[in-house]
Amino acid sequence: MEYAVISPNLFKRLDEIVEKFKGKYSLIITTSGLSFALKEGIDVDKALDEGVKVLAYSHKFQPLEGLSIEETEALLLAKDLNYYLITADDKVKEFAEKEGVKVIVF
User: Fold this and answer.
1) Average pLDDT estimate for 99-106
2) Total number of domains constituting the chain
């Protein structure tokens, strides 16, 4: 099974993402993405119960210009591990494609 990192811009639609992609991809959110979700009051419990994993990008990094730290971590994790990135944001998509990341637009 292939892996896909869920971009934080889609966290409000997390249940929908999990429903659509479970079984096709092992789904990942990042540690800063999880922190973002908790700060924003976005419930991720159901997604975690459904098997979404939380991974950290293990290198020091600065946010890419114009992207949040959360979006940057998701993009860099997908790039380093050669995972797909699921996003709905055009700017994230553009950065990801420049970095050679495989993007799924939702």
Assistant:
1) 98
2) 1
Do the Cβ atoms of 87 and 95 come closer than 8 Å?
A: no
Q: Give the distance from CA 9 to its chain's centroid.
A: 8
| Structure confidence at residue 81 as a pLDDT band (50, 70, 90) | very high
Averaged pLDDT of the chain: 97
Domain region containing 88: 2-105
Q: Which domain CATH number covers 34?
A: 3.40.50.1010
Give the C-alpha separation, 71 to 68, whole Å.
5
For 40-55, write each residue's pLDDT tens digit. 999 999 999 999 999 9
